[in-house]
Give the backbone structure.
Amino acid sequence: MTTTEPTRPPTAAIVTLGCGRNEVDSANAAGLLAASGYRVVEDPEQADAVLVNTCAFIEAAKRESIETVLDAAALKQDGRARKVLVMGCLAERYTQELRAELPEADAVVPFADYGRLPELLMGPGPGGAAPAAPAPGAPTPLVPPGRRALPMVFPTPAAAAFPARAPARAPVAMVKLAEGCDRACSFCAIPSFRGPFRSRRPTEVLAEVAWLAGHGVSEVCLVAENSTSYGKDLGGREALVRLLRDLAGVEGLRRVRLNYLQPDELTPGLLEEMAANPVVCSYFDLSLQHASAPVLRRMRRGGSGAAFLDLVARIRELDPDAAFRSNFILGFPGERAADVRELEEFLEAARLDWVAFFAWSAEDGTAALALDGRVPPAAARARVERLQALQDRVLGEVQAGWVGRELEVLVERAGAADGDPAEGRSFREGVDCDGVVRVEGCRARVGEYLRVVVAAAEGPELVARPSR
């Protein structure tokens, strides 16, 4: 009697570039593929198919995306991969151009076709084998046709699980509040391909968070192009405050981190809720971009260094330990030496925790292309380096202020028997963008919360020991 070897389900790996919104899209894509019979793996070299979720925010991100696609395509010659798909913002923004100029990719998938990912993987072309049938009882994909408003948020019937999102394998997960953007910043092309701002229904967000918490997630990061715009298309901005209050009642949820805050949309009520809500991290991810009012006006943004200092001061009145993150663009057309000095003075006074600097890049379809006063790229890079050095010193001083103090740390990497420290984050550190806390002298489990005392500061990292 002969026995038949069980059919190995085809494997797929998703490589994610860019922001937290792409992380959510990849999580939904992974769930959709899993529900269609694919086994989703971490390592592209061990995958039959590789999906690259690309970023198109600035020129450097576009180059990284193309290089990553080419690296994935090389696995079709050197590894087991038989198909490479391109998705994400680059695929949406340059669909036809990539299809013509990137033959290494088997498919370029715009947002409207995300629901067809399993079909595109099993279709004609190299590696087009159909996936194994899902195991009995496994959820089946449910992607209503024409669902373009929120292309990677697949709704499900009442009380159903989320078949288009796999359970998280870590204690933290991203959750999308909305899609698109209504702002017209002169440096940004995102609204042209992500579309206008569309909020998800609060019940949908709450249901997804509760589902994640039921699968072991204790920290959720709420993301959108502008999280502070949430609810404006649902009857009012107070919807975000109500949502945060409702999230505080989700069983198993310990932390909510609200990302991408527009300073001119931060209401007193939202600031007070963020400071007082027991599960909301006192972590303010402010989209400032510059501190010079003339530069901000050319960017089609409001605010000034003085206004931003006032905002930071108001937040610190509510919580003196509040943590701050922001990004700044240098070398924007028309930026003068005096504007850079004003930004330097702001950074010295604001004492922000985490800051990223970018040199301006000319992006297709943005109003900034028509502005005069271009700054030479070498000068822009030099400004980035100068301000990064300043901020490194400020961060060192801020970090040193935590030595001797207690923090609660969510463990994300367990310590080893040989004394290798555990690693995690407190309320101060965002996911994959800020520093970490190394906890020595313990073998904590991933997902555990530890009370620690900070013993030392080493650049963006804090070294701590368990509280006695």
Observations:
- Confidence is low (pLDDT under 50) at residues 1-5, 125-159.
- The chain has 13 helices and 18 strands.
